[in-house]
Description:
Oligomer: heterodimer
Strand content of chain B: 15-25%
Radius of gyration of chain A: 25 Å
Strand order of the largest sheet of chain B: 6-7-8-3-9-10
Number of helices of chain B: 22
Number of helices of chain A: 10
Largest interface: A-B, 60 and 70 residues
Number of strands of chain B: 20
Strand order of the largest sheet of chain A: 1-2
Helix content of chain B: 25-40%
Distance between the termini of chain A: 49 Å
Radius of gyration of chain B: 25 Å
Largest sheet of chain A: 2 strands, antiparallel
Structural class of chain B: alpha/beta
Shape of chain A: globular
Shape of chain B: globular
Order of helices and strands of chain A: HHHHHEEHHHHH
Amino acid sequence: MEDKFIINFTLGDTPLHQLTGTTKVRFFLCLIAFLIAVWDIRIILPLLFLFAAGIVSTRPYWKPIRFVFTVVTLMNLFNLVLFFLFNPTIGEIWTGTFTQFGSISGRYVLGYETLWYFGVRFSKMMATFLLCMAFILSITPSEFAAGLSSLRLPYRFCIIVELAFRYIPDLLRDYKDISVSAQARGSETDKRKASIFRRIKSSLLIIVPLIFTSFSKVGDIANAMDLRGFGRLKKRSWYSERPPGRADRIVQFVGLLFLLATVYFTLMRLFNPHNPEMWYPYNDLTTYNWRILP
Amino acid sequence: MTVMDGGKKPVIEFKDFSFQYKVQSKPTLFDINLTIYEGEKILLLGPSGSGKSTLANCINGLIPVSIPGKIEGSLKVAGMETRDCDLNQLSALVGTVLQDSDAQFVGLSVGEDIAFALENMNMPRDRMIPLVEKSASIVGMESFLNHLPYKLSGGQKQKVALAGVMHEDVRVLLFDEPLASLDPQMGMIAVDLIDRICRSERKTVLIIEHRLEDVLYRPVDRIILIDGGRIILDTTPEDLLRRYDLLAHGIREPLYITAMKYAGCNLDEEDILSHVSGMTITPGNRDKLIHFFQKEAPSSIEAGKEELIRVTEASFTYSSKLPNALDRVNCVIHKGEIVSLIGENGAGKTTFARMICGISRPQAGTVEIDGKSYLTLSIREIGERIGYVMQNPNQMIVKSIIKEEVALALTLRGMSEDEIDKRVEKALRMCRLYTMRHWPVDAVSYGQKKRITIAAILALEPDAIILDEPTAGQDYHNYTAIMEFILTLNRDYGKTILFITHDMHLAIEFTDRAIVFAKAEIIADSSVFEVLSDDGIISKASLKQTSLYTLATKIGLEPRQVIRHFVAYEKAVRANGR
């Protein structure tokens, strides 16, 4: 079952897996914030490799990851194309200079700064993606719920994550069963044999019973939770939240440093809008085009 | 209430108690007066809709906290009036194991599910872990703590559910139909486990069931028979079996008792009736039994030998990484036969049924219908020859009006209005639903819904119908009604019937032939009495020896002969009307 998904249900034994849910969630959020704030390739590239190493260290099941990786890469490249179409000289806004080295037609000119900007943006997006992957691969839904709860989120909300993962496979199984019986009764789901309209109509034959079976189950789940005291107290402890070790303290401390850096970068930008937004090694400050941030 | 000695402390006290659901116009429970003492093991016996589950929900506090309604009279649990308590106070005292062992598994691992109640108490993790381990080891699941729910059997999930409600303070354990989704052997294990926990952990245990014989596999102190929302009886198992007509209350009596009644035995002569292996059987009764079983067995009617389905060396696997779900199976189904497919969960019986319907095609070997390979036929075309009725009617019903639901398969095939009307009317009449044809589906009972799904399949006029657990969760009354109806389809309309079932009673009573699955293979294909008198098959397929087997060895007869005679006699009795 679980090898079909990227998500882990059981915890692995690699160092990343062994961190507690709270550590993973906190570190992840700090780094996401940091990645949003930073535009410096000197910081982004090492992080990108670090996250990639993190993914490898969890010894994942590669097949679904390769697929997701391809899709995300293509989406990001497509995104860059759109940026270019809307503003071919976007690099200038970020670096302050523009050095043209070619032209496609009309306003679509090629500049080194635009390429630089696209390079930075792409690495930033990919680093974010790799961070998310490393996070997803290292955490179980139960730890995720516990981690969210450590951020003072209401636990009734946190447990939804867990319940979703608990019952989605059941839902898939019901779906298969119902679809099979609908087919035997004569609904055609084969796209070679029925038009789209008829296929949509026949999918109703599956959805209606699926909703009714699921609803009747929701009542049972709610009763089972009530009977075991769910919602009794304001706070709740988590079985999946292991006691933090030394690694957890170090990682959480590093996460905190990144968060402070994020705050620093953001403040710098707010109070010092005249600095160039992006580190660009070929910047000639004498011709710098002082611009106002949007 | 005089059964237990007065020295014991009452745990649950009903006094002139009645309850009415908010959405209903009449009370579901009337005039309940009942006291349950500490350490007692009680069976709450009653047919579906008798109010026994309602009674249980009053005790665990779901009523009136989660399920609103009007309470009159008094119910005290451990001295506290329940209507003044909140659910949490009660759930700390009363642990409930619900019927659906799958839905109540809330955690993503065994350990987490067992810990759920402790988590909700906000217990620190270092105190929680040893408690979880202790509960898990009481039910024998300590080496499964990291296992996922998807990989557990129904019996294992139930053990986890039990461990999850068994924490320190719990004094009462409540089991709502614990046997409903278990195969026979697992059912025995569950009954035994409940008994052990009742004795070793000194908990008061209430079991809600209609399967009397299966629960009596281990002794209970008292049986409380509920019907129509009232307590009919509150007595010992011995007294119940000796003096009361259980069938009148929709409860099936144990097979050995039925056999003794058929043989004309005097039950009052026996000092123990509640457990077949503990019975002495007086010489007089022994003679009557031997005489009865040695009479010539009424011959059963032979089914036609015209071949309908032939499966040859068929194998099927869901994924190349998994072992075969069916491994080189062979069998032939004849027209007009009634066959039961039995075996434990995951043994291959459902896969086999789906293979016959063309839903899962064999990767090796062949399936032939009327002597022709079915490979060129689509699922839909096979569906016109072999109908498949799922266990849960909710998984099949799409339309809101009965008639439309039955017509659905025909509409999908684009038949003419006239043809549809003709076929639907016929199917509805066969299922005795014709007068209800314009009723909304929501307005009918579970058993009637089941009939609707069967009618919907019959409208296609198939030669054979496969029914997946047709009687699951049904009390004896509904069970007999459904089965009698299915027999009519066989007798009067010549339909071939295949059952997938765990229920040995069903196999004994209603089918001629059993195909037994174990570990992806067919390990037996023979008459039901042959299968049930073969020890090897019984243990390989997780079946359970019927009490007739034990009865036979007690009176020194061949079990095969006894079971065979019993089966034939039952059929004759049924054919002549009881």
